[in-house]
Amino acid sequence: MDLDHLLHLLIPSWTSVAILALFFTYLAIAGSLLPGKLVPGATLPDGSRLHYRCNGLLSLLWLVGLLGVGAKMDIVSLTAISDRGLELLSTTFLFSVLVTMVLYAAGCKSTNRGSSLKPHVTGNLLEDWWFGIQLNPQFMGIDLKEILFCRFFFVRAGMMGWLFINLSVLARSVQDGTLSQSMILFQLFCALYILDYFVHEEYMTSTWDIIAERLGFMLGWWLLSNKVEIGTVAVVANCLTFLIGYLVFRGANKQKHVFKKNPKAPIWGKPCRVIGGKLLASGYWGIARHCNYLGDLLLALSFSLPCGISSPVPYFYPIYLLILLIWRERRDEARCAEKYREIWAEYCRLVPWRILPYVY
């Protein structure tokens, strides 16, 4: 593929804009109207509290149903995303830049001093734009966090988008007759991970969640463009990596969520150990201070392993995630040290490992 052709494929079209707009419109409507469990979030410094409507699974199932009916009636093409992958990528990037610029501008004009809307401006334009300056931003009088973020709007967009990108690539693979065992394994791991997220969406309300770009498109496209066959041993190893990663990731997040709701709830059949009445030091949280990150990294690795080891390209995501999580872990450590002080120091002495026991 020459450079001119690649640049041409990256040019956004009105079709890609329409696809993205319809997707976000559906998420906003479904998130607002569909029933779901209302889960209270953490109490903010000013005493306010957000409530999260956990209806992501229902929103996903409805969208799958609507797209299935649309495909049956020849209104929707199952390969639309894979056919327009690069232009959708550039359209999404431009949309993201536009949204963050609007939020930055709106935040700078805010005079509200509450925890949600108080601007936190460092003076570094790039840093403020990148991290954001408001906890729960408003735009034109609409509380975006209450309407959208509180319902995991952008998380849902990423998770659902990841699934539909994969399914579109799978449809293309089936149409082209290139479906392989590696493609099936990759699709299965990703689908299970995404569905599990929506089934346990409530658990995310109690975490300082990591929002990592899910580069399912890159990996799926790699398998579509490169025929990869792996042996039985590799399949078993991939499955074990996914299973261990899932158990650690889901188990750690569940333990913290349960602890925050009921600090006296037993963990692994034993009374939980608590430092200073605030920090959980039992279960996975007694093994490493960020054990959930280890699970996430193993899951990311399991998504790439079906691509084999012939090229480093498919491993961009786990490498990227490793860098991102170490950076986030360092910021989280600094935040906790400032917030909990001597309690955090005691926890660090009790649990010396940050992510991977005996290594880091």
Automatic annotation (TrEMBL):
Belongs to the ERG4/ERG24 family. It comes from Malus domestica. One of its GO terms (biological process) is sterol biosynthetic process. Pathway: Steroid biosynthesis. Its EC number is 1.3.1.70. This is Delta(14)-sterol reductase. One of its GO terms (cellular component) is endoplasmic reticulum membrane. The lineage of its organism: Eukaryota, Viridiplantae, Streptophyta, Embryophyta, Tracheophyta. One of its GO terms (molecular function) is Delta14-sterol reductase activity.
